[in-house]
Amino acid sequence: MNEQNISAQLRDIKPLLEIPDSSYYIYWGLIGFGVLLVLAILFFVLKKLWENRKINLAKGYLEALKKIDWHDSKKSAYEATHYARLLATDERKKELFAQLEPMLEKYKYKKVVDEIDTETQNKFNLYVQVADESI
């Protein structure tokens, strides 16, 4: 009888169950999420730095426009055209630059030029004022 009890007990023992282990996938999923999070933070930091750089460049261009010495009208016309073109980023400044550029052209390509007339000077000052307000 003992043998029958032992064999009955052995039949009651069930085989080992396989426990699903997803820790490997969780581990790599967390690493992937962490990498994506770091990349997103890096992207936004670099974007913010790039925007600040653009603003600083625009401030530099505006300062260069304000420092133009109008006694040498040929050199001044070249400088004004160069920096005004770099600052013309929105529609209003582009429109004002389109009006200012032909006025400055008459001082650029001649060997001897006259002094800047008041109309050109006023248009330039308006452009500088608009640019200063937008920065």
Properties at a glance:
about 140 residues; mainly alpha; 5 helices; about 75% helix; rod-shaped
Compute the average pLDDT.
88
- Tell me the helix content: over 70%
Determine Rg (CA atoms, Å).
37 Å
The main β sheet shows up as: none
SSE succession: HHHHH
What structural category characterises the helix and strand content?
mainly alpha
The 3D shape can be described as: rod-shaped
- How much of the sequence lies in strands comes to under 5%
Number of strands: 0
How is this structure best summarized?
By secondary structure, this protein is an all-alpha fold. It is 76% helix and 0% strand.
Task: Walk me through this protein's architecture.
The chain has 135 residues and is mostly helical. It has a domain at 54-134. Helices cover 76% and strands 0% of the residues. It has 5 helices and no strands. It has helices at residues 2-12, 23-66, 73-87, 91-105, 118-134. The longest helix is centred in the first third of the chain and has 44 residues, at 23-66. The chain is rod-shaped, with a radius of gyration of 37 Å. The protein starts with a helix and ends with a helix.
Per-chain topology:
Layout: H1 2-12, H2 23-66, H3 73-87, H4 91-105, H5 118-134
Helix pairs in contact: 2-3, 3-4, 4-5
